[in-house]
Amino acid sequence: MALEGRFDDGVVRVGSDARQRYHDSRGYGYPLEGNEIALAPVEAAHLLYRGDLEAVVDNDGERLGFREFIAREPGDDFGVRFLVYADLRSRGFYLSPAAEPWISDPPGGAADFAVFPRGKGPGDGEIAYALRIIGERTDVPANELAEGVLAVVDEESEITYFEVGTRDPSGTSNSGTALPDGCEADLLADRVVVWEPPLELYEESFYGQPLEGREYDEPTLQCSLLEAAYLAERGAVDLDPETVRERGREVEGERFNRRLTVYTALRERGVVPKTGYKFGADFRTYADVDSVEDLGHSELLVRVHPADYVFEPRDLALDVRLAHGVRKTMVFALVDGTGDVEWWSLERLTP
Amino acid sequence: MALEGRFDDGVVRVGSDARQRYHDSRGYGYPLEGNEIALAPVEAAHLLYRGDLEAVVDNDGERLGFREFIAREPGDDFGVRFLVYADLRSRGFYLSPAAEPWISDPPGGAADFAVFPRGKGPGDGEIAYALRIIGERTDVPANELAEGVLAVVDEESEITYFEVGTRDPSGTSNSGTALPDGCEADLLADRVVVWEPPLELYEESFYGQPLEGREYDEPTLQCSLLEAAYLAERGAVDLDPETVRERGREVEGERFNRRLTVYTALRERGVVPKTGYKFGADFRTYADVDSVEDLGHSELLVRVHPADYVFEPRDLALDVRLAHGVRKTMVFALVDGTGDVEWWSLERLTP
């Protein structure tokens, strides 16, 4: 026989044998005195939805079925939280609000739910995912990114899950030990031509791109303003670094400085960054470049943002979807005012 | 023996047997009196590059080789235009500046070059592509979109070609003839629930998304605010249309009105628009929906912009690349102040 609950100060209290039926064996709510349990609105809605609760009585004594309860939207973001709660339940997970007294020692930050490993429940002390739930129109400031899972519910109630993690790009590429000295170069409107550099500059360290079909022994290399700024700073090409950086800022604005910071950081970590234009990113990166001949596929797509950037979920979906489609991982490099870089990866997750 | 040219009022003049060697048999430049021809700077650079011209003499009598000529950057966007010119030549195309006297009857608008079908040249009177060339940092106002090819040169001199065309989405889907009358529905914070609508609303006309696992005969449908506004305007759900539209504007801002205009236009054309969130677009569209059971893949991804939008080439690359990766065509719907819609498709092209 289905039970009834009653609204009381933000939770739904259910008595009778609710504790054993809903809490102990199925991971809903938290125990109160006697056999009563307290349910979060989303948990109560789910039990109504499944017919396990017949009704919830509100403060005026009105009996609410699933439909009336939903229409009340008890709590912020109730709709999207309910949809994700129901989806994860249907996938065989137990999950609880990420707060006491539902669980002890809840994950901090903006996590809405603690999702337990399949087969485990709230009492087992093990969390699989710290889950945050947003609608597709909710902006996410970069400083709110946290390790865990982000569930985005779109306007038609489809749910996309992202695994969010910090990332530490590193590699074994030879980025600096064999840089030449003062190669002749010309600064053009929006790129640089390096005349007759040693072959290794491209073929081992993967700077620039050869101009095809030249009649000389050594290739003519075309470099981006970014690559050229990096090389000029190290005396590898005979251009004034500040002149190149100025040109970069003319062409790209502030973005140039941030991209140069990230380019430099990646090179210092043994990673080769090349332009990510074709993928709509700032860089595609190669971690282990021995020679251009044996080049594998790039592993990461990197997008550079200021540390105070605000993400729109739709752009996250686009970036991550594209990266997934070309078998790369999407990484966001957040650059603050002092030039420090924080690296975050986002990948699609099927829970 | 390689010839020399001389700079004269924006073109490079070459005499001797240049006319027969470079113009008649290889499609460079246009004829002047006698055997002389005039070359655009890009054409002269290409002949220097290939060693066909030994030097170009400038107004001060200085002899410029390829390197010196390039460094002068004669003309706007010289670098990117040269790179594309060289790329298309290496692919076996003849191409000329899209202007008289290189060709008669040039394509209008922002076209830089007329590219001729393989095997044809400037004198054959047939153009394969009206080609515009930009660097990846050049903004493209929506009102500058024109049928033809857009070549974008990225910072490392890789070239991406886009075919740009007007588009007329149409389909055979049943969008309105069988709409129900006044179905009960609840307006939630950012979506609408329709209770017990007739099956055909989803199963044949593909409105909404069923909530899984309900115990009733008819499905509960969850609709986006956009779908609900459209249905409310037609009396299919018992919600006040303006209330729904207001909620849409609260959630999405002005974008809501534009998206509703495009949603309506697509439905009127027999096309079913569903949310494009997972692809970072506004809509994915289905042209021929008979029933949801036999649903094929969506054919188009549609992104909605105001008519005065300004495209960044990097976002174009991202959108088109993603669409290509999921085997759909990217369409931009430009909405002006009067609610008229212009449809443009962009697809990657390998010339």
Automatic annotation (TrEMBL), chains A, B:
Residues 256-343 form the tRNA intron endonuclease catalytic domain. Keywords: Endonuclease, Hydrolase, Lyase, Nuclease, tRNA processing. The keyword tRNA processing applies. GO terms for molecular function: nucleic acid binding; tRNA-intron lyase activity. Residues 4-69, 184-240 form the tRNA intron endonuclease N-terminal domain. The active site is at Y286, H297, K328. Endonuclease that removes tRNA introns. Cleaves pre-tRNA at the 5' and 3' splice sites to release the intron. The products are an intron and two tRNA half-molecules bearing 2',3' cyclic phosphate and 5'-OH termini. Recognizes a pseudosymmetric substrate in which 2 bulged loops of 3 bases are separated by a stem of 4 bp. Endonuclease that removes tRNA introns. Cleaves pre-tRNA at the 5'- and 3'-splice sites to release the intron. The products are an intron and two tRNA half-molecules bearing 2',3' cyclic phosphate and 5'-OH termini. Recognizes a pseudosymmetric substrate in which 2 bulged loops of 3 bases are separated by a stem of 4 bp. This is tRNA-splicing endonuclease. It comes from Natrinema salifodinae.
